[in-house]
Amino acid sequence: MATTSGVPEGGDEQPFVSHLLELRDRLLRMLVAVALAFAALFPFSNTIYTTVAKPLMSRLPAGASMIATEVTSPFLTPFKLTLIVAVFLAMPYVLYQFWGFVAPGLYRHERRLVLPLVFSSVMLFYVGMAFAYFVVFPMVFAFFVHTAPAGVEVMTDISHYLDFVLRLFFAFGVGFEVPIATILLVWMGVVDRESIAKQRPYVIVGAFILGMLLTPPDVISQTLLAVPMWGLFELGLFFSRFFVRSEGEEETEETAAAVASVAPARAAVPPEPMPPTGFQPPSDGAGDPGRDRIEPEDAPEGGHEHSGEESAAERLERAAKLCGRGEDGLARSLLYEVLVEGDDEQVAAARNLLNQLDGGV
Q: Structure pTM?
């Protein structure tokens, strides 16, 4: 059943349903990728666990070994570790599917920014895990083994060991995301570089507090996480200077949003005929009826007339509002002025609006 405007009922729901179907398909692809990686790794599950346990096994006293205190631990613990490794190996493909879902809704400059940040965040997470395995684990396990009281034989349960190392892997992976967090805070305008640089003492204290919360209750792992986090904060602060948003960039985004909002409003308005081929954009002289009608009707609140010194960006924004109200003649006059006085981006936006007025959308 169609409405009086000729648009089918439920037409607004169809895009949402299509997005849900696309999301479902991409989630299924992610699950299939993880399942394939797990199926390929499962025959080597015991080898994978032995590799992860090597930092502790190599530092146990002679004759000591790890133990399994539960009946199912010898099977379930390597199984759990293999599944987690499969997720990590499939993570680039998983993020690619997420990127394919959200990228169409981003501006071009946002796509140029988000994609490198996603790639960098994944690589930093992997680097944090590698730092934990090759640097932190040997030092922490050597400290724990050599500080055991006399007469106490160190025999760690395999499931407890896995929980311990996974917690450290996660802590160092998240801790190494500090540069990305710093860059995002500066780019989004939550803080500026100067103010966050002045908070450096608080950042250092916060790094040690976060290290205390994320790592086991020992000073070594806490310090080994806090110091790299501090260094990575300085690294993110340095690179954030390349991601500071200028005022012109924000104005461009607002203008693009105003232009995009006109299309739905124009759906039910019949197009007007194109001006004559020899039509010239209105000048500042008198006798132009379009100009005489523009300034009184769209004057600022308080009854003041237009100053005549309006920039091309302001004229473009005002024309978009007039198009939304159906005042096509006034909007055309402003758009022709933008074609003469605006820069390349403003001219492109003005042509886009004129095409919409002429029924080109």
A: 0.59
